[in-house]
Design a protein that fits this description.
The protein is of the alpha/beta class. It has two domains: 199 residues, Rossmann fold; 127 residues, Response regulator (Rossmann fold), CATH 3.40.50.2300. Helices cover 42% and strands 17% of the residues. The chain has twelve helices and 14 strands. Helix 3 runs parallel beside helix 4.
């Protein structure tokens, strides 16, 4: 009997062993790291969720093509909540309990994010939100992080620019949605810190298609020097068009909630001169070569626009940062253990993303400061960097 001959008295044992090896080894080798997401791919917030979904798909494919993470492929498990907070809560529950994902990167809106927060906290699931309101991370929640700049930071960046232009008497006009209400409240809160006086404060409903009544009141308010529209969705476009129709000859500021070329397309020439705070992504090529973000934002912009033939938006960039923060945390932790990944996300230092340079801590689950925001202005139908 040669050394590689199997004794015939063990045929059943051999067959069973071979079968187990055939099934077990590939299963262990191919077990995917599951990235969960619930996004507003359709509905009123589709301008957020659609580029977020496309970004996650694109970069998970790229990561897998280069070998995956920890020797394993990534698998995206994503649901469309259509901007409905209750659907978001249901999908978050499904991701945690049924899909058994390793991390969640999603939540296009503040409402959908906050609906999921109690679930991820109870399940001890690392969760990186793509929504804007400061309430997501203040007070700090152990398992919750976010990538976009906060609404408070947007107010502060706008007020810094107003200070530089010697504008101090401001009118607000905002929607009644979750983001709008949150940013309005934050602007009112921090205005005194910048010696800004809010002299008019108007609102409009989600379904309103004309804001001329509110803007006429603002135009007739004595001493107004500038107008700020904390909002996102269709409201800011309507405000911008009505602003031009009424010939309100005052500086108009919008929020980072409309930081995309789509806002300019929808608003037309009425957007000329509008300023807002935004991530560097919108003016990627305008950045000096010395800017640490330039390589990242130019690469993301070329990848996204090359694949989808659509203009890049800061919202897709939020998803890129969320995914990369999760992936890098897993690599540093050397594990997909949820507690270890959470700790690694919180320990992130010097991550250069589309939103800025991220330095997180136990008291800061976003990790961006005001320098991560750029002040942009529409000139000649395109976003330009205000020097």
């Amino acid at each position: 009997m040669t050394s590689n001959t199997v004794p015939t008295r063990f045929p059943k044992l051999l067959a069973i062993s071979a079968m187990l090896a055939a099934f077990a080894a590939p299963t262990l080798a191919q077990e995917a790291i599951r990235i969960g997401a619930f996004l507003s791919v359709t509905g009123p917030a589709a301008f957020l969720g659609d580029p977020e979904q496309k970004t996650l798909e694109t970069y998970i494919e790229k990561i897998n093509a280069s070998g995956g993470v920890l020797g394993r492929k990534l698998q995206l498990v994503s649901y469309d909540d259509a901007g409905d907070a209750e659907k978001a809560r249901t999908f978050a529950k499904r991701l945690i309990e049924q899909d058994k994902v390793d991390v969640i990167v999603g939540g296009s809106t503040t409402g959908s994010t906050m609906a999921a927060v109690p679930l991820v906290e109870a399940a001890q699931m690392p969760f990186i939100s793509l929504a804007g309101a400061v309430v997501i991370i203040e007070p700090v929640k152990k398992w919750v992080f976010k990538t976009p700049h906060t609404d408070r930071m947007a107010c502060e960046k706008v007020f810094v620019d107003m200070n530089e232009r010697k504008l101090s008497r401001v009118a607000l006009i905002s929607g009644t949605g979750g983001f709008d209400k949150s940013m309005r409240a934050e602007c009112l809160k921090v205005a005194p810190n910048y010696k800004i006086q809010v002299v008019a404060d108007e609102t409009y409903g989600a379904g309103d298609t004309d804001m001329t009544v509110q803007l006429t009141k603002i135009k007739n308010t004595a001493g107004v020097q500038a107008v700020l529209n904390p909002g996102f969705g269709q409201g800011p476009t309507i405000v911008t068009k009505n602003y031009k129709q009424l010939a309100v000859n005052l500086p108009l500021y919008q929020s980072h909630g409309v930081a995309s070329k789509e806002f300019i397309k929808l608003s037309g020439d009425a957007s000329e001169g509008v300023r807002l705070p935004a991530a560097a992504l919108l003016i990627a090529e305008q950045l000096p070569d010395s800017d640490p973000q330039k390589k990242v934002v130019v690469s993301y912009k070329q990848t996204y626009e090359g694949k989808y033939k659509q203009d890049v938006s800061t919202f897709g960039g939020h998803a890129y940062d969320g995914l990369m923060l999760a992936v890098e945390a897993m690599r540093r932790a050397g594990s997909t253990d949820k507690a270890k990944v959470r700790d690694a996300i919180e320990a992130t230092k010097g991550y250069i993303g589309t939103g800025g340079v991220v330095n997180m801590s136990p008291t800061d689950h976003m990790g961006l400061d005001l320098s991560a925001f750029r002040t942009l202005e529409v000139k000649g139908g395109v976003w330009t960097l205000v020097k």
